């Protein structure tokens, strides 16, 4: 009897399977994957009329699944916008990358870069569903950054370009379990420029090394965001090993003062800096500058008195005498700070600011 070796039988079966797969009977089983990003950004024709024209997302656009080359990111501390959640992404064309320009300075982005930010609410009433409100783009053209604001339709299938902004009522349950009603405001291009500017030139606000030096759970594993940007070819690796990094202001395990400084940095510093909208006021709220009580306004006389009994920008131990607290703790448009981006009080942040003011030593 002829002896058959197991390896020979395996080879024969494998060959039969290979021949069958090449016979044309199952043509649809193999679909080649396009190695190129599908994103469409033609700097000569942007902004497009519809968000879908950019092809930033795969499949159903409302799911916000990034297409190849579209990288999600998340600042450590985030700007408050009436409790809206945000999804942020960055895309750059091939062959260019951002460069480090200082821990607390926005990365120097190349021409063609696009910053994508979608605003949405969970637990929208009465159906308790998720609703996307808007997607904002910052596009770096040869002459500088331009804004592109897209408002989502009620069907959540498309977002269309607007330059004039608008409003929409929304009722939702926030992450703390509280029912909130908001007349949500979509910004006009001029409103965007109020906050996003230095010397009247448009700029991004959030993507600074100090606010990206943290881990993020990507689809292929958790990694430091700056390192991931380098891996993607979106950032030069010339940034320093040690970065003066903010903290998540909601993290109560961190020092109270550091949490406050991190919150004020992302919510206030972009206006309270040289060449920006509130540069004439004495406060300097950047994380690198707020180690100084003078820059924070502690025991400093307000330049614009509110005539409500406040005697200092921050009066230690006395929130009722602190102008900064009064401006944060109101929704009145003529008084509140920030000027734009919110229409209701950020209750949890106000509570933190109150705790911090009460912890400060008295003025000499």
TrEMBL record:
PROSITE patterns named among the record's database cross-references: PROKAR_LIPOPROTEIN (PS51257)
Domain of life: Bacteria
Identification of the protein by name: Cytochrome c domain-containing protein
């Amino acid at each position: 009897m002829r002896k058959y070796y197991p390896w020979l039988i395996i080879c024969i079966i494998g060959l039969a399977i290979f021949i069958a797969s090449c016979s044309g009977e199952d043509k649809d089983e193999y679909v080649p994957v396009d190695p190129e990003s599908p994103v469409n950004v033609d700097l000569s024709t942007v902004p497009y009329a519809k968000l879908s024209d950019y092809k930033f997302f795969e499949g159903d656009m409302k799911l916000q699944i990034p297409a190849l080359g579209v990288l999600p990111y998340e600042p450590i501390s985030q700007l408050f916008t009436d409790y809206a959640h945000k999804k942020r992404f960055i895309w750059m064309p091939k062959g260019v990358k951002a460069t480090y320009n200082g821990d607390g300075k926005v990365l120097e982005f190349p021409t063609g870069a696009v910053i994508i930010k979608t605003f949405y609410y969970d637990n929208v009433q009465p159906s308790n569903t998720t609703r996307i409100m808007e997607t904002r783009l910052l596009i770096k053209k040869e002459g500088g950054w331009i804004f592109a604001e897209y408002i989502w339709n009620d069907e959540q299938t498309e977002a269309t370009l607007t330059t004039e902004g608008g409003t929409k009522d929304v009722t939702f349950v926030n992450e703390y379990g509280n029912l909130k009603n908001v007349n949500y405001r979509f910004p006009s291009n001029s409103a965007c420029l109020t906050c996003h500017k230095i010397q009247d030139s448009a700029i991004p606000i959030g993507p600074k090394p100090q606010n990206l030096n943290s881990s993020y759970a990507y689809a292929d594993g958790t990694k430091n965001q700056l390192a991931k940007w380098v891996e993607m070819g979106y950032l030069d690796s010339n940034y320093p090993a040690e970065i003066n990094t903010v903290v998540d202001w909601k993290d109560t395990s961190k020092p109270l003062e550091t949490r406050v400084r991190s919150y004020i940095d992302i919510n206030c510093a972009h206006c309270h800096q040289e060449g920006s909208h509130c540069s004439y006021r004495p406060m300097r709220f950047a994380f690198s500058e707020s180690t100084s009580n003078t820059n924070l306004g502690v025991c400093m006389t307000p330049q614009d008195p509110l005539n409500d009994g406040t005697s200092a920008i921050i009066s230690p131990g006395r929130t009722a005498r602190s102008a900064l607290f009064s401006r944060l703790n109101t929704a009145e448009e003529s008084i509140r700070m920030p000027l734009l981006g919110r229409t209701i009080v950020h209750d949890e942040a106000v509570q933190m600011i109150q705790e911090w003011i009460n912890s400060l030593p008295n003025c000499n």
